[in-house]
Design a protein that fits this description.
Rossmann fold; alpha/beta; binds adenosine monophosphate; binds magnesium ion; 5-stranded parallel β-sheet
Amino acid sequence: MADHRAERITNLVSPLRVEPGTRVRLPDDFDPGYRAGISKKKDGVALLRRGTELLADYQRRLAAQDTYGVLVCLQALDAGGKDGTIRHVMSGINPQGVRVVGFKVPSEEELDHDYLWRYARHLPRRGEIGIFNRSHYEEVLVVRVHPENLKRQKLPDAARRPDVWERRYREINDWERYLTDNGFKIVKLFLNLSKEEQRVRFLKRIDVPERNWKFSPADVRERARWDDYQRAFSQMLSATSTPWAPWYVIPADHKWFARLCAAAVLADTLIDIDPQYPHVSDRTRQELAEVKRELERQAPEGALADPYAASAAGSTEQDPKAKKSEKGKKGKKGQRGEK
Ligand code: AMP
Ligand code: MG
């Protein structure tokens, strides 16, 4: 990993971080239209492509090491671009190493448990990247803006006093600290959309028939509570950006830039973890060398002893007879396969 690349990623993500202990006031403190001086979408898209290659490499190492897990929490207002961000940032990553979970209105069963229960059930394993499309933060966002949600949670009286939000911030911070201490890094992304850009995206969802399914009249009711959400997000960001799990406010009015930033924050976290392929002992290496010799002895007549090593060494000098017999084998296999 070239150091200048890590430095560029850090430079991109630093201004987005909510410094723990600072008080955030939206919409004033973070500009949804910010682009870090990248004026052309084309340049941003090219950077994202390189970023996703880097992520794929780190994800392979994370899985091989099997010690750390990563949880990405995505929060946004409606039409903030959560789905597209997941699709683009995770493109190129082995699907076996990633688990995406979306959280909707809680079910009866979920309401029968403490409020963190349903999120804890879907945490990633070691070696995995888990993505929460909406997360435990809904418990201090939609539940706060619409108190009827809190009523449905069957809480004892003492747990629904007005200090409930402060208490939840503390409980969430403690829970995240516990997870971090035990090898699970938490990446918290808030896609910060402007009210005008939301209006435009809603209209697009109405105007384009293929997008109608993405729009619900409830979205307009939520939009009417815009200021309440901005307040709830501001307080949440102020209270739950911690040294072990800081928030990143992602400028979301330009989708390509939001995706680039999300990839950069995830990359920054993985660079920090610096997962390594497991160390192979001298003894195992010796055993591998013995097996290699045996496999080489098994090469059929005319075949290279170790075709992989030959091509890795850039060898083009292949025995013409070997090529012929390879061709012959393929032909036979194809005929058998057609039956
Ligand atoms: P969507 O992500 O558009 O499919 O919508 C999911 C809906 O579930 C949103 O309206 C969220 O506000 C709602 N939701 C998610 N989590 C909770 C929660 N803990 N309590 C109440 N509503 C929730
Ligand atoms: Mg929706």
